[in-house]
Each structure stands twice: as C-alpha cells, then as structure tokens.
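hiii, so i know i said id send this last week but things got crazy w the move. better late than never?? heres the sequnce for the chain we talked about at the cafe, plus the structure i predicted for it. fair warning i was half asleep when i ran it
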Amino acid sequence: MPAGSRLDEKLRAGKKALRTLPGALLLGSTGARLWADYLDPVPGFSGRFDFIHKVNIPLLFKITNNLEESFEPCQTEWFPSHLLMAYTGNRLSLVERKFISWNDCAVSCQTWTNRSSEELVLRLETYGDAFSECKGNYLYGMFNIEHYSFDIAGVVAVSDPALFEEVRLKPGESKDIIVSAAFGISGQDHTDLLRERASAYAESVYTIDQVIENQRNEYQIWFEKTPKFTSSDPVLNKTWTYRWFLLRHNLADPQYGHLSYPLFYEGRSHKKSKKPFSKGGWEFSKLINLSVPLHLMDARWYHDPIYSEGPLRNMKNAPGEDGMFSCLTVDTIMHSFANFSCWAAYQLYLVHRNTEMIAEILPAMKSNISAWKLVNGNDQDHLMIEHKHTRTGKEYQPSYWYFHQFPKNPKDKATYTHLKRVDRAVYHYLNTLGVAKLCEAAGDAEAEEFYLQADNIKQDILDKMWNEDTKFFYDLHYQTDEKAFVKNIVGIYPGWAEILDDRFNGMIEHLFNEQEFHTKCPFPSVSADCPAYSQEGGWMGHFVKGRNGCVWDGPTWPYTNSIALDALAKESKRRNHQFDRQFAYYLREYSFLHFMQRDLNQPGLVEHYNSATGEPLSDEQEYNHSYYIDLIISHVAGLTIEKEGIVLDPLSTGLDYFCLDRVKVAGTEIRITYRKPDVLSDIPNIEEGYCLYVKGKLIFSNQTLCRTELTWKEMNL
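okay and structure toks below
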C-alpha cells in the first residue's frame, strides 16, 4: 500500500495534547479494553490508563535513567496507530515509538544514545509493588479495582532482561529496547496467554522499525472495510477520514458482564477526577444508549455489521427501567436516555439485510416502546413527558424553565416544569415506525399495529407542537399542553423525521436567521433570541456545571448539528432543492469543528463549542456523539437505501467532482461518481456527469446531478 494512502499519513498531527492538562499527550491507538487517557512525556507508559471503564491507572511501566530527569521539551508526532516522541539533550538522546495493540498490549520501542562522558544507566520501573513477581524474563502483576467486579492482570516482557536490574551504556553507545505489557481480566485471561501476547513484541525477531510497521499495517486493516470518499473539497475529504478514525478509536470489545458484544464508546475521555484508581463523576467509556443510534447511522456503512449489531445485543440482553434500552457498564444496568435506537436498527437492516439479527432483537425493541409509553406516556395523547431534563441528553434546555421566567437558580425544583418534549416525541415516532418496518420485513403480524401507533404520534406532533404564527415546533406543558415558547434546536426534528408537508414551510428557515440559529459557529442549542441564551454555557451568568459544563442553553453540539443538517437536507429535497447552498455551507462549518483552530493538520473533535466564536468548550478529545459519514453518503453522494431499491438524490454542494466507492449494500459493492463537464479530477477513471456503478458495471448516468429511483431488479440485484 502506498505510504500516502494510509490513515497514518492522512491524519498525522504533530503534537496532540489536552488543553486542560498541559504536557499530557494523547494516543490514537486503543485496545479492545485498554487505552490511554493521556501520556506523560516520559519513556514508557506513565500518565492515566483505563481498562474497559475509567480506572485511572497511573503507571504501566517506564524506563528510568541516571542522567536526565525531564524529557521536555521533546518533539512528538501523533499518528492514529502510534505516537513518536524524540528528545535530544546534551547528555542523552531518546527516540520512542509506542502504541496500544487491539489485544491490549502497551508496547514501547525505544532507542537510547549516551551523549555524555559517563555511563548511562537504564532501569525498568512499574507501579509500586503491583508487579513484584519475576519469573524468568517476565514480570507478573495485578491492579486491584475496587469499584468494579474485575481486577486487571498483567505480564511485562522486555527485550533485555537486564532492565529488571540495570542496563549500562558507555559514552557514545546506543541501544534498542522493546518493552511490552499485556493486560487482561484476572481469572478470565490466563497469564500464559498474556505472557504470549507480551513476548510477541518484546522477544520477537523483528527490529523496532519492523514492529512499528507491523502495527501500522494491522491498524490499517480495519479501515479496509470502510467505504471511500474523495472529492474536490479537502475539508470534506479529511473529515470523512477522521470520522472513520473516531469510530475505530472508540471501538471496544470488553467481552465481560453486560458488555459481552462489541460496542462504540461515546468517548475515551471523562468528566471525572484523575486521582489514581478513583471513581465518581461521569465517564463516556460505557454503553450510553443516547449515543448508540448516532454510532449506528455511520457504522452501518462498515462492511461488517458486527460492530453495529453488538450494542443492540448488549441492550437486548440487559434491559432496564421496565424494559427500556439503557446505559450499561459491565456490572450495572443504569438509567435510560431518550434515543432513536429502533429506527437506527432499521437503517442498519436496510444496508445489511440481516433478518436473523432482526428476529433476535425485535421482541426487545417492542418492549422498549412499551416501556416508553408506560414511563413517559400520558392518557391524553401519544406524546412523551420528560420528567428529568437530563434524560434527553440535553440538560438545562431553557424550555423547562419557561413557565417560571428563567429563574437565576435552575436547580430550584419549584421553578422546573415537566414537558412533552419535541425530541422525545420524534424519537418515539421514529422508533415505532422502525419497529413497524422491521416487523414487516420479518413477517411479524404486529406491523400494522405499530404503523397505526406511529401515525398517531405523528399527528399529535403536528397538531399540538406546531405554532403557525412563528413557524416552529415547541415543547409543551405536561398538563395543559401550553407551548413553551423557546426555540430549542430540537424544534426542527420533525423535518428530520420527514413528517412535514407544505403547511410547515418556514420552519427550516429559522436556521438561516442571524438572530436565531445562524451564529458564527452554528447551530446553537437554543435560539440566540432566547432570554436564557448563553453562547458558552452557564445559566444566566452562573456556571452551574463548572467552566466546561454541559449546559444546553446556547453552545453548539456536534450531536444536534448532525441531526439539524440531516433535517436541512431532507427539507431541501422536499422543496425542490431550495436549500442546497445553505446545506453546503453548514456542512463545511460542521466539518471545521473536527479540527482545532480550523487547521486540517490538527484533527480533534470535542463535545461542545462556543456558538458565537467556535472555541472548544470541552476537552474530551475524539468525542463520538454525532454522525457525519451518513450525511456524505445520503446527501452529498445522494444514496438512500429503501425496502425495494435505492433512491439517488444528491444535493448540489458546489463540488467539482466526487467519488463514493466501496459501498456495500446487501453484500453488493456500488460506486457513485460525479464530475462537472470540462473539469479535471484527481480521481482516475471518473466520467463526466452523475454515475452509478454496481459490481463495476455502469447502471445509471446523467449529465447533471439528479433524482432517480432504481429497484433491486433494475440494479441486477
């Protein structure tokens, strides 16, 4: 494979570090269970390390020396597959390349050179007495984790056993060292297996360069099953590549407890203390049912459905709250957030057509819908009441306090009103519709009943939540149905759900209003004309959740940006492509959120941003709670999968050319290309016009972007 085509070369980023902890370096590679929260700038693995969940291990191992105490300033180069750190001082020089492998090995490859006039002494150091047992060329140890049901076993292997005591380098002498530590669940992963994994790196016949090259190749393999997208816009191209990295970076496979199947984490960072082995606070490294459908919207396009089916299986096997899909750690069934997992499961089915999987999870999805009606339903209509403002994942949306004129203290429960929420109602509609369609696909007789339920929900959303005067959808008082006249970003969700007709024209235009959602960093979580709007969070001048707290009263979230862009694209298509230009603009602005300082050489996505400036407000790098890949496939390339075939309907986004390749639908590979007349393309063999290829054969072409429908039969499928 040409070096420039690898993910490592496309996303290499120089120094990547935490804003809130200067000097704390980030690592791109992650294991199925082991990862680095951050790395100290020292040789080895010192910093904070986690296993399955946040456990804050401060040290796996490091190499100490007698000549230098600090390795700062050092040069670092971040790659998705590994980290390069280089230091040159008057006394010594060090080049280190390190990574965490998918099978949970922390591997450090070091080259030391003694530049002094005295001996350089190197020793291996581990955490306290955790690795006090030495057998042959290996150290054996354990990290006791008090707040989970598992403890972490480890085996450390070295290329030179003298490191357990000391290695001496004479002046001018250089030495290569490889240290590898393999980790697993005590009592589940046998130490013989861990020793074998660790020694495969430290005691192999490979040189350091070969070890790193093998890691780069193994890391790249996962990406060989992703679709490819290339266009005339480098911003879209780079963001597409980074979004696939985001999925791989947050992919986990604990194979333990409630998380027996693979899943994607919402993030590898956390809002917790970094005190060693501490607990408390909120972490993203677990199954969070709020983010599951967002992951599925993108990951469904991965050629192997196992990673999208895994979260659904985990939730099916561990229901909570009267049968709801819920958040999960390996030990605990937690609360449930409002989400659209059932609808996302149907979207997954459309791509992969796995009827056995659908039959397996359909009963659990029916139970999930029944539980929503039981816990959040009411006797007057088919809308859902949100009792806790945190449960839609959009805490402190101002509409909850509208009926008490936005008090200064939002934590006073007397000023808080339960609401029939637009977002939960739309999720409920989509979930019910998704179950109806899955029932139909599986030959389940209850399909018609769920179609009827979905239609009832739809009618209540349109009849009750719409305001004709302001052309917007609003949350409702849970008892009186009085509208809370706050334009939350979720007010455009009905457009995303495709339940609108011309009676609701005017809704999507709110996104373009500079007094509302067209801020410098669109789209704010609430309209800028709301009295409680705060561009950087906080509440009425008070940071009720701290400086970087999650407060949905004005900052911009990638989460809702992905849905808002989806809604905008669908509304543009419904209205004869009237808003294609606006979609193209906002898609690029959303893309730029994925790069620090809008610099394509510094990829990094966090949870939320100042909506007036674009400043990152949080420091959870590689945050995975939105979708993007699906927007490119569905609206830039124009591909939508339906029951009986496909629809091609791209938006005109101003691209001179694009190529969407290696897309698989029901196991069949398709390719979609576009090139303006008389425009040169960097992509070989791309014809003028808009073209669809199936199994390499041209099936459809048109001189311009256009809409067309093709059945499976017309596509020879």
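btw The CA atoms of residues 239 and 591 lie 6 Å apart. thought thatd interest u
miss u guys!!
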